[in-house]
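Notebook B, p. 112. Complex prediction, attempt 2.
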Amino acid sequence: MDKIRASLLKKSIASKIERRGKIISLTCLALIILVVFLIFYFVASRGLATFFQNHINFWQFLSGTQWNPGTTGTNGQPAVGALPMIVGSFLITILSAIVATPFAIGTAVFMTEISPRRGAQILRPVTELLVGIPSVVYGFIGLQVVVPFVRNTFGGSGYGILSGTFVLFVMILPTVTSMSADALNAVPRYYREASLALGATRWQTIYKVVLRAAIPGMLTAIVFGMARAFGEALAVQMVIGNATLLPQNLVSPASTLTSILTMGIGNTVMGSLQNNALWSLAMILLLMSLVFNMVIRYIGRKGKLNNER
Amino acid sequence: MADNTNLTTNQRNIMKFDPKDHEIALSTEDLHVFYGKTEGISEGDLQFERYKISALIGPSGSGKSTYLRSLNRMNDRIATVTGKIMYRGLDINSNDIDVYEMRRHIGMVFQRPNPFAKSIYENIAFALRQRGMNKKQELDEVVERSLRQAAMWDQVKDDLNKSALALSGGQQQRLCIARAIAIKPDILLLDEPASALDPVSTSQIEDTLLELKQNYTIIIVTHNMQQASRISDYTAFFNLGKVLEYAETGDIFTNPKVDLTNDYISGNFG
């Protein structure tokens, strides 16, 4: 009897191990939170320096169209207008998402609804393979194939928003496709059965029931693809032309936040206006990816509410 | 009265109707279901009388659900079904049949309530809209009629635009029945419609089915033998993918001809 009493009052080895495991995982979590926090702090402190140390007007930064931080612009202030890059980034993101979405949804429907076996055996591994291809390869193919194609078909130099859109379309397609396929797979089988048993055709079932039920998941997939397109640097930089001009059309050289960042960050001195201005671009990028993240979470939560049983 | 032929062995006892006295709504001849190479059902050979409730009972895995799902070809992409399913003189298991049109006449309600994530109204209007009925007034009428027939109009008439998923399990299942009868099928197949429900909801569903019997031929799979005896006119006993006995419900429960049926209904196995 006393032995049992004693064992109840003493911490067993198992409970000690459990405690240790808890501490380890908590430490890992805390470390990650710290890193994220530090990144935000660092980017913000550098990025905000443009406005507080160099006294650049924030509004001018967002709306100015001249970008050449070393020199003085026409208004007598340093030329740090980021509008061309902001417009370039959004344009290329939205266009590539618009082009990629129909293909992605079509492929996902084929993979999950029309030919699940071939989808699982061939299409899914292929799309997953596409995700793993390094972006420099995409960029190189863009440079060698897409740019000449655009030049010969649409005129201009071939570098520009259009080439960037084509390259990003191929890059985000696998992500959007496989996430859409997951969303379609997550639609319960009984939805399909219910619809079929009511005499609906397969197409009616796919279009009116399965796709409708998967809308939140597919929106998440599209926003995810957009976040990837927005943040992609290397491949875009190789095909977009990197001219800090407000894009006049889709085939004239343009630039994105990321392409200017990767081009410029190695050529500036830490603490100078040129450097701080680039950090401001990085800050905008970071804020935008935060927004994308929040949109994804919001859609996910709404979708869950809609499908709760 | 039904003829009891095939009484020669003690192993199987399948009733056949005399076509002079009984109108057959649906019958199967030599039905086999294969999952890949394995045989799920062999020799399913039954006739179902019009405007009656026929129950399919048997232990888990005996093939009664598989058999039921074959009747409106819900197994089409899952299993291979051979044999004949006769409906109005046509073999609806043939490739010439428009499956989608056929399912309009042979509706189905599943074990787990499966309303769409839409409003109560839209759940019922779904199939009607697919068939091109778009006039608000017509839709309203059908929705009301279907919900009345499923005995839930009074409970939900003020909440038609609320999500169907907010209903209780029993109400969801009755909504599924309402949805199935909205397109006025001939035959209603029910796959253990009450197995996920509490006793009160179950008895409401049973009342609904007895009510529906006046206009519909009902075939129901059930695990619950009391349920079979309460509501059905005929009962088929399945075991290991075979129909062993098919007779009037009263006969099956009081005087089964096959030993295994007797064992099953007296609770000796299964």
